[in-house]
Amino acid sequence: MQGKKQYQEKLFNQFQLSVRVPEHNFYRRLKGVLNLDFLYKETKGYYGSSGQKSIDPVVFFKLCLVGYLENIM
């Protein structure tokens, strides 16, 4: 089953990560120009219809992309 992550900012001791990240940050700018919603349609055939939901394909792609860009994979 294909999962889909619903992002909701959580507060912990009055700390919000989105407030701390500068507006000109590379990944913020990348998010503004890169629409990855097409991945849901493209990967739908690779997911089963029963069992536990798997990782969101967009989240997985972003993890791989950050690993590549930061040279950690």
TrEMBL record:
Residues 17-72 form the Transposase InsH N-terminal domain. InterPro entries: Transposase_InsH_N (IPR008490). It holds the Pfam family DUF772. It comes from the Bacteria. This is Transposase InsH N-terminal domain-containing protein.
